[in-house]
């Protein structure tokens, strides 16, 4: 009899799969504390379902650790407290079907942003962005290039002195040139530290000692706030890393701040030519937060209160990557002044990501108002929150150059991890913050 039942069950699964209705039994589930989910198998059979931690997970709203159910109806799970539990299913109370690991994580809610922000960041050292020739009495040369320093290198010390401002370099170079002593330059490249000897050259045209290097120590731009976490006092923005405009080298943060900004105009996106938001930092605007980290998923730092013009005044739930579905959604962004508005989009593709990766989803702008105003996604829109089914699911990050109505987004889960408010076993990506 048991053999006949097994044969019937597996034949049924095969028939269902052929019709596109194969049972979905995940190996593990993640829930935030206080939230619930359901498992739908659509199988016309009876099963015994049990959970080893009824204090963590409740079955169909009942306190019983075990019960008989019909798999033709959804099995409802509700989370009571953080912890791990195992959910076991047995067909007809005898045949092991599946064991599902359920991980309940402490509740986490944030306030979605959408505000246009001004970004000012100072690097943790002096960034080399190029070489130039110094005209001496006898030749043309770049002392920095001759010393092996390349564009993208970050100079952190000269003669053991930590560099805090680009003006420090000129003073040290002049002293070294006059004393005719080479400088010991410490720099970083690809997360490794090197030291080289560099002798400044005297430029006979501008009568100054030069290194033959183009350098800078700061950057500024416009982006969008993604979220503010009031309980933890932190924020996340942009959804992608800040890089130097010339070398495309990620900027290692020394310090920085985000400021209130107002959109003054928009250059519309066209196929082959992305548009941009034009905005200015408000003179009367206060600093909204500090910049402490620059990662592959944006910038993060401290923030003490919810910025003005928020659509949401209270925190909302966030979604795990596996909760994001193809279908309707909306983004929050500013297209004029400081007013945050909602705009309709469609999630057209969702990547399966179990570890942090960029470009987690593809979205398409479907709101005619936004298309008319911007032509689609424009520069400065990166970081715009993506909402679906009442949850914050991600942020806009990139525009498709040849199809500006479409672009990439990242999952909010990865941003929350880099903000330090959602635990991740191992930090896959480098945190670009000076130590």
UniProtKB/TrEMBL annotation:
Gene3D superfamilies per record: 2.30.42.10
Domain Peptidase S55: 192-431
A GO term, aspect molecular function: serine-type peptidase activity
SMART domains, A to Z: PDZ (SM00228)
EC number of this enzyme: 3.4.21.116
Domain of life: Bacteria
Enzyme class, first EC level, given as a word: hydrolase
Cross-referenced InterPro entries: PDZ, PDZ_6, PDZ_sf, Peptidase_S1_PA, Peptidase_S55, SpoIVB
Signal sequence coordinates: 1-17
Keywords: Hydrolase, Protease, Serine protease, Signal
Cited Pfam families: PDZ_6, Peptidase_S55
Protein name: Stage IV sporulation protein B
Source species of the chain: Paenibacillus macerans
Gene assigned in the entry: spoIVB
């Amino acid at each position: 009899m048991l053999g006949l039942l097994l044969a019937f069950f597996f034949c049924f699964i095969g028939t269902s799969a052929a019709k596109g209705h194969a049972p979905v039994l995940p190996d593990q589930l993640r829930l935030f504390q206080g939230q619930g989910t359901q498992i739908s198998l659509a199988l016309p059979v009876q099963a015994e379902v049990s959970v080893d931690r009824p204090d963590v997970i409740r079955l169909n709203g009942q306190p019983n650790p075990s019960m008989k159910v019909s798999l033709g109806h959804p099995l409802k799970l509700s989370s009571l407290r953080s912890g791990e539990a195992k959910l076991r299913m047995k067909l007809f109370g005898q045949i092991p079907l599946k064991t599902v690991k359920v991980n309940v994580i402490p509740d986490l809610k944030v306030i979605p942003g959408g505000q246009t922000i001004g970004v000012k960041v100072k690097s943790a050292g002096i960034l080399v962005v190029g070489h130039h020739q110094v005209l001496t009495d006898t030749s043309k040369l770049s002392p920095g290039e001759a010393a092996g320093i390349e564009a993208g290198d970050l100079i952190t010390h000269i003669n053991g002195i930590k560099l805090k401002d680009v003006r420090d370099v000129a003073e040290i170079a002049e002293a070294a040139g006059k004393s005719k002593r080479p400088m010991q330059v410490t720099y970083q490249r690809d997360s490794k530290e090197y030291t080289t000897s560099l002798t400044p050259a005297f430029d006979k045209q501008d009568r100054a000692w030069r290194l033959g290097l183009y350098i800078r120590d700061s950057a500024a731009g416009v982006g969008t706030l993604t979220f503010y976490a009031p309980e933890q006092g932190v924020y996340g923005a942009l959804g992608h890393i800040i890089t130097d405009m010339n070398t495309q080298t990620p900027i290692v943060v020394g310090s920085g701040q985000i400021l209130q900004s107002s959109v003054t105009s928009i250059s519309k996106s066209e196929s082959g030519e992305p548009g941009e938001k034009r905005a200015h930092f408000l003179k009367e605007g206060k600093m909204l937060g500090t910049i402490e980290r620059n990662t592959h998923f944006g910038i993060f730092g401290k923030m003490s209160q919810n910025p003005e013009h928020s659509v949401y005044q209270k925190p909302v739930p966030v979604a795990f990557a596996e909760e994001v579905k193809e279908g309707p959604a909306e983004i929050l962004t500013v297209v004029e002044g400081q007013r945050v508005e909602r705009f309709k989009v469609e999630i057209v593709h969702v990547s399966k990501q179990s570890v942090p990766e960029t470009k987690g989803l593809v979205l398409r702008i479907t709101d005619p108002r936004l298309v008319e105003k911007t032509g689609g996604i424009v520069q400065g829109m990166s970081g715009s929150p993506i909402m679906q089914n009442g949850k914050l699911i991600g942020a806009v990050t990139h525009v498709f150059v040849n199809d500006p109505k479409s672009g990439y987004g990242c999952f909010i889960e990865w941003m929350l991890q880099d903000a330090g408010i959602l635990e991740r076993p191992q930090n896959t990506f480098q945190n670009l913050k000076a130590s």
